[in-house]
Amino acid sequence: MGMKQVQEVSPGASAKAQARIDQLGSSGPNILPSLLQCDFSNLEKEVRRLEEAGFRGLHLDVMDGHFVPNLTYGMPIVAAIRRITELPLDVHVMISDPSKYARAFAEAGADIVTFHVEAVPDPQDVICRIKELGIGAGIALNPSTPLGAVEPFVGECDLALIMSVPAGFGGQAFDTTALERIKNLRTAHPHLLLEVDGGVNEETIGNCVQAGADLLVVGSAIFRHRDYGDAMDLLRRSMQCPSSS
């Protein structure tokens, strides 16, 4: 895929946030390391290693122990990461009340806040609230949620996140129904940033790219490598080789 034409965020978006969103969408597809699997005892070192390996953005998974059963981190970690990097921060909030915390995440340094359609009664209201803060708004859905749940709202978003595993659960196999969802959204919304998260690795990344994904969230397929540059090279090569299985 070549240079991607990026859908702009709302007129109130800050220039810096807009530039970072453009960075995510340009020269794609782009691999976003999921920092949930990094070494948090050496957070700055980990971020530097990822920068040196050539990754163009970071994916931060926020879980509240309520909307999903796992509990991770919140605004202080987002703020700490913002202090040590200028890379775009793609913050995926798996929480029950995203509107309540959107401002805090924006102030902590998020460039995009992506919430789950399953978590809110009025997705349009959440999208507006996020965009009023001068950052990008994303909408996510789980594999069991019909694509129709997000279709009325993706035109107002900067990003749509297709989960290929249930949010909040680790070690799940890649659900191939995600590929058809990506294809459908790409056809209907050619300039929308499409992201896929869950089970993305050397075996699945090529099919995700072929389906039309722009942003590929990767965890263990990066962090199990001693050299993150080697991980990047392997994933980049695998992008060109869709699996027939």
Give the helices and strands, then pairings.
Blueprint: H1 15-25, E1 30-33, H2 43-53, E2 58-63, H3 75-84, E3 89-94, H4 98-108, E4 112-116, H5 123-132, E5 136-141, E6 159-163, H6 177-188, E7 193-197, H7 205-211, E8 215-218, H8 220-223, H9 228-239
Parallel strand pairs: 1-8, 2-3, 3-4, 4-5, 5-6, 6-7, 7-8
CATH class categorisation: Alpha Beta
Output the number of helix runs. Answer: 9
Are there runs of 5+ residues with pLDDT below 50, and where? 1-12
The description of the largest β-sheet is: 8 strands, parallel
User: Can you count the beta strands?
Assistant: 8
Percentage of β-strand residues: 15-25%
Task: Provide the CATH topology.
Answer: TIM Barrel
Please write the string of helix (H) and strand (E) elements. Answer: HEHEHEHEHEEHEHEHH
Which structural category do the helix and sheet elements fall into?
alpha/beta
Can you say what the CATH homologous superfamily is? Aldolase class I
For the largest sheet, list the strands in their spatial order. Answer: 1-8-7-6-5-4-3-2
Instruction: Tell me the Rg in angstroms.
Output: 16 Å
Residue-averaged pLDDT? 91
CATH architectural type = Alpha-Beta Barrel
Q: How helical, in percent, are the residues?
A: 25-40%
Distance between the termini: 22 Å
Q: What attributes does this structure have?
A:
single chain; 245 residues; alpha/beta; TIM Barrel; eight-stranded parallel sheet; 8 strands; 36% helix; 17% strand; disordered N terminus
Task: Describe this entry's structure for a reader.
It is a single chain. The chain contains nine helices and eight strands. It has 245 residues and is α/β, with parallel strands linked by helices. It has an eight-stranded parallel beta sheet, with helices on both faces. The two termini are 22 Å apart. Helices cover 36% and strands 17% of the residues.
